Amino acid sequence: MHVAPGRAAGRAGWPSVACIEVGGVETVVLGGPEPVVLQGAAPPDGLPVLMAVPGLIEGDRVLAASNLDWWNVDPAAQLGVDRSATLLLNDAEAAALGESALRDGADLVYVGLGTGVGGAVVRDEVAVGANLFGHGRAFSDTACPCGLTGCLETVAAGWALPDPLPAENLPGVAAAVATAIRDDPLAASGPAGGLVVVAGGMSRRHPDLVAAIARALPERAVEPSAAPGGVKSAAAWGLARAYLRFGAASTRDGFDREHWLGRFGDRIHLALATTHEDSINSWGRRMAALHLR
To answer: Which helix (H) or strand (E) holds 130?
Structure first.
């Protein structure tokens, strides 16, 4: 299926790659006159495979994706793809980079509202913060699949909300999202009036949600996704931009164990092992599923 023409269609300089976004899996093939969308994990032969997956990423592994029940897995093997991913990114990070790329490299805060909640901050076309917003704050008394109580997901994620979402629920969801953005140091530290992009399945099904968030966050410019019609998100363009910039290398230098131990050490009292086999241990299913927020 060809996507509707837009800022992404036909843009010069996109590499020939197959970009797989997990979570309602689709493959977006770039490099031709227009992007082509294939349902499922269906990368054409001969193209590098780039993947965007929710959860905690280390190298070519998904250490924890609570909404998928994936724990320390090779995502290509999980999807039955015949070759490993050349580049693997968190889905919100990839989508944020894509939204920036489709806006000529604009700095922005990205909030993805879908089955779960993800977020990232992009500055100078680099994700300076990812795995943001979804987990770790007290917005309700509801238990979250990550093991904590009251995460933003419990009041703003698709799994927690009625479907269809009544109009009277929109202000509450919007207020919670606005609070999460204001309370996050990275998201709040940008320039006055800085851009916030709200995307994901919830915003597609309920377009008035973007306007509700704009009203709840009047100090910021709030926009919907710039991804062309017919695709889940801008993740393919973020993956492609990262691939052009970093080649086969990940945009990270690996999982920063010391940083996250410092952040969560008072609650886990364990050191991360250096091997994949031990990376998800007795605390990992709970803490890593926080999407590190």
So the answer is: strand 126-130
Q: For strand 220-224 and strand 193-199, is the pairing parallel, antiparallel, or unpaired?
A: parallel
Asked if pLDDT for residue 245 goes beyond 90, the answer is no
Half-sphere exposure of 158 (CA within 13 A, CB side): 18
Backbone angles phi, psi at 81, to 5 degrees: -80, 140
What CATH topology corresponds to 103-224? Nucleotidyltransferase; domain 5 (3.30.420)
CA-to-CA distance for 208 and 213, rounded, in angstroms?
9
User: pLDDT class for 191, splitting at 50, 70, 90?
Assistant: confident
Degrees, nearest 5: CA angle 79-288-70: 20
Assigned token pair, 225: 């996704």
pLDDT number for residue 151: 94
Percent of the chain exceeding pLDDT 70 equals: 80
d(CA 202, CA 113): 5
Can you give the pTM of this predicted structure?
Answer: 0.81
Instruction: Indicate the SS3 state at residue 48.
Output: coil
Domain regions of the chain by residue span: 103-224, 257-284
Task: Indicate the SS3 state at residue 224.
Answer: strand
Kindly state the tokens that stand for 150. 């009251």
